[in-house]
Amino acid sequence: MSFLRKRSSSVTSEASSVTIQRSRRPSLKSSLGVHTPFPIAELLPSKFYFTVADGAALQINPVPQNGFAKSQIFTIDHELVYEPFASDFGPLNLGMLHSYFEKVRTFLQGNRPVIHYSSNDPRKRANAVFLACAYLVIHCDVKPKEAVARVVAAGFNTFLPFRDASSGPCSYKCTIVDCLEGLHRAWRLGWYDPSTFDKEQYHYYEKVDNGDLNWIIPGKFIAFAGPHSDRLDGNGYLALMPEDYYDVFNELGISLIVRLNKKCYDRRRFTNAGFAHADLYFPDGSCPPDQIINTFLSLCENAPSAVAVHCKAGLGRTGCLIGIYAMKHHGFPAREWIGWNRICRPGSILGPQQQFLCDVERIFLQRSSVTVGRSLSICDQRQPLKVDVRLSRDEAKEDFGQGERLTSAKKSGQLSRKLSCESPLSGPHVPNFFGRFL
């Protein structure tokens, strides 16, 4: 399988150009002293390389050739590990991505060639290539397709595409390039800044017992799993209630909570605390009809500050509607959005929602005018946009129990023991997103 739906001529030509430039150089394997039957991709000349190990570890000579210093080799296969919901395996989340950047930057400060290697497991290899190329995109000003072309030029020309977190078959392919393009656009918009991003806070709040929430569009949208009416769920595990979010949401400037799933708590538990609350239910696993889209856009465009959105798991319906807002207001193409959304909050956007976003992309991008450069500006942001969407049978069909399956999978992956009834969000020693204490 190709890393693109249809092999891009631009990536092919870029890879061919890189191959020609390197054809007369001494063998990288001999220069670096690396023993592997797989190619070695030169990501940064004489500095940063990627390859695949033949076995558990990469073998190197103690004495390199051609004037090269002894290589610094590393792998992240067992250090940065994706937590699957079903058959999904990536991309790795934003906190892991940031940790990888820190590791590579530290290694590159030395005077030794740095070699990132992975196993030949196609899932591990796809995540490793994504991370390595992401470093080039964010820290070396390399365009996403050029970054992948440097890997392709070495001979790694097929990558397993990422898939959704649904339990059934997946026909939509989320490629490495899609994820890199989404990350690059988010960086240009200022949604991810390596100099200010706090990975400890990210990892803290993405845990089920600490809120299960993530910024998707920083300063505008938080996605989170739906609160419960009671402290414990049916399995005896801690369940967060509306009251648990008061302090955190006030600190984050949340003014509006939008619920997309069936009622699991009384909305007055938020409104009595001063938050606006809106119910925009549509079936689990389905795509939003036009009335829901139009109402959601209107509510969020008129909200005085940030909006917290949830469905059952805060993944499918939530990511779908926030994505539509991002298309209209930030010119974010659908494929890039799906990549970015999953980097921020793994498991987001499932089943027919993936192709649905691609199908409605044209409607919203026509209303989004962006300038080229580090800062993007949008014209006509608040102008009402009436959308007439006709859902297919598959797009309107409910996937019964999908939200419950997703939340259960996340809990079983993160929680190794039953938690106490104390709210983890209201104690005096819990840091919020801004690094202060509540």
UniProtKB/TrEMBL annotation:
One Gene Ontology MF term: protein tyrosine phosphatase activity
Residue stretches making up the Tyrosine-protein phosphatase domain: 211-369
Residues in Tyrosine specific protein phosphatases domain copies: 290-356
Pfam families recorded: DSPn, Tc-R-P
Sorted UniProt keywords: Hydrolase, Protein phosphatase
SUPFAM superfamilies recorded: (Phosphotyrosine protein) phosphatases II
PROSITE patterns found in the cross-reference section: TYR_PHOSPHATASE_1, TYR_PHOSPHATASE_2, TYR_PHOSPHATASE_DUAL
Protein name: protein-tyrosine-phosphatase
Gene expressing this chain: CDC14A_1
